[in-house]
Amino acid sequence: MAENRAPEYTEGTPCWVDAQLPDVEAGKRFYGGLFGWTFQEQPGRRRGTVRALKDGEPVASLARKTDGRLPTVWTVSFATPDAEALCGRVRAAGGQVVSAPLPLGDLGVAALVTDSEGAVFGLWQSAGHPGFGRRHAPGGFAWVQLYTRDTAAANAFYGDLFHDALFGPDADPDFGRAPVSDVFPAEMPPHFLVHFAVEDPAAALEEVTRLGGRVQVPPFETSYGTAAVVTDDQGASFALLRR
């Protein structure tokens, strides 16, 4: 799919991804080697957080974990014009607020929540930073899949929360739901899996291994393309996708 730029994102559209890592410098080496990302310090964020760029356009951020007990993980954030109001709707639908809305300088407002089954995701209320400057092109965000134990409940939760983004006339969701057991062991907790676009999955998997990561799930066919699940050299899982 061609590169897609958007100055703003409809509420419920995946608009940003970030990785919480023990070692940001190691993350820069890994993802710079894998995707050709470059990096810049991120004003308004805590020290040690960097923005990743692909061909000069923002695609992700890497942040140092402040607590070793936290997971090493990629998190997707969904756009919203009002993070406080959306947190209220998340609670009303049976989810929880992990981190209340927090202004990040002049970039916007961030919050962290869970759905009714405990899958964690972020909310992003844009100010100076709307989100991805590049997506769907190699090295950029391509898709996010929620692996859940109850797809009917997930469809109801997100269908109510993000109806226009998922089902509206201009819907371009980049967001699917599937049973955990389709790809992972049944005991795996519900979670979001961030997918990055690649042109050649086999070559990308070789590069993941060369850089110290590992292949978690070999390539498999989905309704949205050929995917493979990998982990980086610090244990954060993500997927590679050719659409």
TrEMBL record:
Query: What is the superkingdom listed in this entry's lineage?
Result: Bacteria
- Any Pfam family matching the protein: Glyoxalase
- What PROSITE patterns has UniProt attached to this entry? VOC
Q: Where is the VOC domain?
A: 13-126
- What is the protein name stated in its UniProt record? VOC family protein
Q: What species was this sequence derived from?
A: Streptomyces prasinosporus
